Amino acid sequence: MEATEIVLAAVGEPESLQVRTRRLPALRAGQALVRVEASGVSFAEQQMRRGKYYDQPPFPFVPGYDLVGTVEALGGDTDGDTDGAIAVGRRVAALTKIGGWADRVILDVADLVPVPDGVDAAAAETVVVNGVTAWRMLHGAARVRAGETIVVHGASGGVGSTLVQLARHAGIRVIGTASPAGHDRLRELGAIPVDYKDDVPAHVRRLAPDGVAAVFDHVGGPGIADSWRMLARGGTLVAYGSASTRDKPGSGMLTVFKLVARLAMWNALPNGRHATFFNLWAGKARHLGRFRAALRDDLSQVFALLAGGHITAQVARTFPLTDAAAALRFAEAGGFTGKVVILPGPRA
Ligand SMILES: NC(=O)c1ccc[n+]([C@@H]2O[C@H](COP(=O)([O-])OP(=O)(O)OC[C@H]3O[C@@H](n4cnc5c(N)ncnc54)[C@H](OP(=O)(O)O)[C@@H]3O)[C@@H](O)[C@H]2O)c1
């Protein structure tokens, strides 16, 4: 069995991505062959092609943070998983960090999450990494309650537009920062848009004079201090990225380390506010079984909201797998709402 994949060979421009075909190894027991129907561009790939993602493998590798596909075969005498939810012909999703930009992949059955019937692959793709990240930050890291107000930075982005919807569904008021091109869509999603190039703290003070219950900040950099100051007493700053340093020289790891140190310092202040750095992968190495179970639980909750029409898939644009370079270029230009989805399509 062959797979077509997109390879990031070294630091370079999107156009340096290579298309290759490779023979896949035989399936082992506990593994599944998945025909990929959709993957997507995450901010991580923008950092990886610059060698700036804090946790990227050595080059060369196949990028692709998540995927949705259909199980084509199971290895050994595997019948699927213990509860029968994963079987041949079943549509599934997986969080891969790398490897999703391919038309076929081999994954551990234990890493697959069933996609509800009736949810199409591109729609499901918009809420895999985005959905789990947004769900956990909202209901785990910050524990925001109905009636409270939050600030979501980058509200038009993949994670941001999902977070806005999950929060609105939970009865939470949302102030979302975004470039003006995304403001109409953000209003449709129920958020109050603010241009992130404006004086955001002034807008937030006007809209929430006592401060907000939580701020979700993927930007880092000097603006993180504003995010901290926007909080009401008892509020939580959830930092989860460092988008502002994407084009700056220096180590991605060091950037995150400095940010975490700064949050720890604020956290030690006796002022009733909290700061935390959210990491989707926390605990995976030490507690793999628990990590997989929690991923399946959390993603299933988000899928159920999507299947029930409580949140809607925000597909910014789709690209064929072989146009991954154009997809990455488009994603990097910004100014759209939702997720850039990559569709491998049927094999020739
Ligand atoms: N910690 C974790 O476990 C975890 C997990 C998943 C994602 N993340 C992080 O989440 C963030 C969003 O990821 P994504 O895949 O959703 O990205 P995305 O779809 O590319 O969205 C990024 C958004 O950020 C905005 N943006 C870009 N640069 C900005 C800047 N300097 N200041 C303010 N806003 C800026 C963009 O707005 P415009 O288009 O309007 O410019 C866009 O709406 C990334 O930083 C990523 O690393 C973290």
Our estimate of the beta-strand percent is 25-35%
Poorly predicted regions:
none
* Helix share, percent: 25-40%
Tally of individual domains: 2
Say how many strands there are. 15
**CATH architecture level-2 label of the largest domain:** Alpha-Beta Complex
Largest sheet: 7 strands, mixed
Secondary structural class: alpha/beta
Q: Please, what is the average pLDDT?
A: 95
| SSE series | EEEHEEEEHHEHEHEHEHEHEHEHE
**CATH fold title of the largest domain:** Quinone Oxidoreductase, Chain A, domain 1
N-end to C-end Cα span: 14 Å
What is the fourth-level CATH superfamily of the largest domain?
Medium-chain alcohol dehydrogenases, catalytic domain
Radius of gyration: 20 Å
The number of helical elements comes to 10
**Highest CATH level, the class of the largest domain:** Alpha Beta
Judging from the principal axes of the Cα atoms, what is the shape?
globular
User: Which ligands appear in the coordinates?
Assistant: NADP nicotinamide-adenine-dinucleotide phosphate
Quick recap:
The chain has 348 residues and is an alpha/beta fold.
Can you walk me through this structure?
The chain is an alpha/beta fold and 348 residues long. It folds into two domains: 2-126 and 313-343, Quinone Oxidoreductase, Chain A, domain 1 (Alpha-Beta Complex); 137-277, Rossmann fold, CATH 3.40.50. It contains ten helices and 15 strands. Strands 3, 4, 5, 6, 7, 14 and 15 form a seven-stranded mixed beta sheet that branches. A six-stranded parallel beta sheet has the order 10-9-8-11-12-13, sandwiched between helices. Strands 1-2 form a two-stranded antiparallel ribbon. Strand 11 (212-217), helix 7 and strand 12 form a beta-alpha-beta unit. Helix 3 (129-141) packs across helix 4 and helix 3 (129-141) crosses helix 9. The longest helix is centred in the last third of the chain and has 20 residues, at 288-307. It is globular and about 60 Å long. The mean pLDDT is 95. It binds NADP nicotinamide-adenine-dinucleotide phosphate (NAP). NADP nicotinamide-adenine-dinucleotide phosphate (NAP) binds at residues 42-44, 129-130, 133, 153-154, 156-160, 178-179, 182, 196, 218-219, 240-241, 243-244, 278-280, 331, 334-335.
